[in-house]
Specification:
Rossmann fold; about 10% strand; globular; binds zinc ion; 4-stranded parallel beta sheet; about 290 residues; 2 domains; single chain
């Protein structure tokens, strides 16, 4: 490893998802180099432990994650292999953006039995734009602690990001007002926070539980629930089966909206704002 002078070196930051990477770029600007591990089209719970991740984590000054164990499938094992003391859990370079987020759907029994993927509650809070503020704050605070010389810049950039987000939140609320009260199902239980923001009524999931594939009996009962509760919308996260979503649509008359739980899943969703925008437009398009 080459020695670099901390006075001139940019902070090397590894984000687990492309939308977190975008927020880091907004806040860290010219003082950070950012890379993202997961691709937007992947399942955050099943990102492969690619060998190329190790050198990235070896050189990193910080790793930024969603937390609530969303990255359980790949991050803890990679951090063990990388053995970079700066980014181990509990160190200043270990940045968990969930710290100020109140989790939804916290299970009464914490368990990974049968592959349950949300042991600490629903980790897909990033797709509710209101939580963008928490993400920005966690990142700005921790970058400032790592690099106090530029703390004022990080704080200024956080403020600008949050201001822009507030304006967008108002626009999204207005735009999506017609969707309020619409009954919906999703493939994976990933939509709780966005549904709360938009006022959608989530009536079930294709999966039995997070990470647990549906049985024919479960799908039958889901169709019944959808018909009974007049569910109009099927939210298919981009990494899950189009075929199942189309079948469900055919059985129930509901419309499919393809959405994503991470940035970068679609050509227009590379940024944090783009991710939110794409999901909301996709939902409104399906309900037209
Ligand atoms: Zn999940």
């Amino acid at each position: 490893m080459t020695a670099v002078s901390p006075a001139f070196a940019k902070l090397r930051v590894v984000a687990t998802t492309p939308d977190l990477a975008d927020v880091i770029r907004r806040i860290g600007a010219e003082f950070v180099d950012v890379e993202s591990l997961a691709k937007g089209t992947e399942d955050i719970h099943a990102v492969p432990q690619r060998p190329s991740f190790i050198p990235k984590l070896n050189r990193a000054d910080a790793v930024v994650m969603l937390g609530f164990e969303a990255e359980h499938a790949f991050l803890p094992a990679l951090l063990d292999v990388a053995q970079n003391p700066k980014i181990m859990r509990g160190q200043p370079g270990y940045i968990d953006c969930s710290e100020d987020v109140s989790p939804l759907e916290v299970p009464t029994i914490i368990s990974r039995a049968e592959g349950e993927q949300h042991p600490l509650g629903n980790p897909h809070y990033n797709i509710d734009p209101r939580n963008g503020k928490n993400i920005a704050k966690a990142i700005a605070d921790k970058l400032s602690a790592l690099d106090p010389a530029h703390a004022a810049v990080y704080e200024k950039n956080r403020h600008a990001f949050t201001q822009e987000l507030e304006i967008k939140i108002g626009e999204w609320r207005k735009l999506a007002a017609p969707a309020k009260g619409t009954g919906a199902v999703s493939y994976h239980p990933s939509m709780a926070y966005l549904a709360d923001f938009l006022g959608l009524k989530m009536e079930g999931t294709v999966e039995l539980k997070a990470g647990i594939a549906p049985t024919p009996k479960h799908l039958e009962s889901l169709v019944e629930i959808m018909k009974k509760n007049n569910v109009k919308l099927i939210l298919r996260e981009v990494q899950y089966s189009q075929e199942t979503a189309d079948w469900l649509a055919k059985e129930t008359g509901a419309k499919v909206a393809t959405v994503a739980t991470m940035g970068g899943a679609f050509p227009d969703s590379g940024t944090y704002f783009g991710m939110i925008d794409h999901n909301i437009h996709s939902i409104l398009e399906a309900l037209k």
